[in-house]
Design brief:
single chain; alpha+beta; Enolase-like, domain 1; 4-stranded antiparallel sheet; 7-stranded mixed sheet; 2 domains; BirA Bifunctional Protein, domain 2; 373 residues; LipoylTrfase_LipoateP_Ligase; 17 strands; elongated; Lipoyl amidotransferase LIPT1, mitochondrial; BPL_LPL_catalytic; transferase
Amino acid sequence: MVLQSSLKNCLHLSCILRTPKAGFRSTTSGGLIIQSVSNDVYQNLAVEDWIHDHMNLENRQVLFLWRNSPAVVIGRHQNPWQECNLRLMRQKNIKLARRRSGGGTVYHDLGNINLTFFTTRKKYERMENLKLIVKALKALRPQLDVHVTDRYDILLDRQYKISGTAAKLGRATAYHHCTLLCNADKFVLSSVLKSPYKGLKSNATPSVPASVRNLFEEDPSLTCEMLLDAIAEEYATQHQIDHRITLINPADETVFPGISKKTKELQTWEWVYGKTPKFSVSTCFNMVYKDSVLDVKVDMDVKHGRIEDCNIDLPEQWLPPALCSELVKSLTGSRFSPDETSTLAATLLRVCPHDDELHSRWNLLCENMVTLM
């Protein structure tokens, strides 16, 4: 059994983490296993950034274990509208995060384990990390049919993906992180990782769909805690270090100076949405009003998450051209966001002539525009 210790009682680790790279004490070496006490996706991603930026890994390797409350995490160069169902995520209060590494989109919840392997760039070897996980799983349950693919996934029974991989390679340091499905909510996973948005054209990195399966489905006796302990023990054995998981609090500024700033940056609209590669939307929708059906065509170019160019094509007799032009003008330069579009629409409505028929048509158009976002 892997013993757990509080970070407050681990003076050795405290010394390591509090010391910036420039003043790092080279006398400490070996490996380190740490686990977050937080389930907040932004805090845990900030820990990755902090260790990558501040920890000297020349004489040590670090394994970071973490789990999140429901969240969708996209790769550094991905488009959230292309990758997930943002409307459903808002309804279910599922967070969206953009990580610093590349790769595809993943769903996290407490039934999903996250593992981050930190090394120097020279020692970076994700295949060895994945083999370590497979070895730990087989030691725990020898009957499990698990193996690593050439795409750096881990498959169960030769067909079901239980782990995906991404990495960040810095100048001197690197990290490889991966997921491990234990008992995640597969219904929510499949629902939120299915984009409902039509007419998107983007050069963003697309995710590769795969059939997934929980390890719990293969063996109901398995728990996340058992898997974490098994992987930590195998890591400790391979690196000849103490079989101890040290608990860390990602909000503790005394241990991670400046980490709150990193956490806040990862939550900003500018990072989560504004870093989306340029894309376009060209789509049509039907508006049913009284006894008629109206076809509306919308074209938009979006850069840095903001509408760069916009065109709305609908019959002049349905809405005064000047009013439609005012909407297009207001949307241009605004965030490609349902909240911001709703606010703009409400503001413009207040300066419209007071006409119930006109207001009803306006509201219907704006409601449909919001669904595109």
